[in-house]
Known about the structure:
seven-stranded mixed sheet; alpha/beta
Amino acid sequence: xxxxxxxxxxxxxxxxxxxxxxxxxxxxxxxxxxxxxxxxxxxxxxxxxxxxxxxxxxxxxxxxxxxxxxxxxxxxxxxxxxxxxxxxxxxxxxxxxxxxxxxxxxxxxxxxxxxxxxxxxxxxxxxxxxxxxxxxxxxxxxxxxxxxxxxxxxxxxxxx
Length: 160
């Protein structure tokens, strides 16, 4: 798969990450680790301007409960610290669900270290990962803290 590696300095928001990677915020893809059950995790690829829709994802997976692992558990499963998680090179081969907005255009996905991202064709990305592609996100609500250094990794805990 062809890619363009981008290295940049520290970023504090989605807007900063997008600018550093020379893409729009919707083209930044966040790799989220989701826990289905004990020892059962998956990756969810989420466009930067969107958030996981827990009802949609639960319906797709046929489960009644999902959660986000804490940073320690995510690192144990993937080998990556939060903010650097990527489906490439994970310690554990995990299934991948990609939001329906990922394929069809170039996207920028984290490459396993702070300040490193790969710009790839979204369609080739989901194909290479064997991802299930489905509508599993909702628009992210505007946040007051985004410009003031809020987290851009979408690591909020799921409701209920």
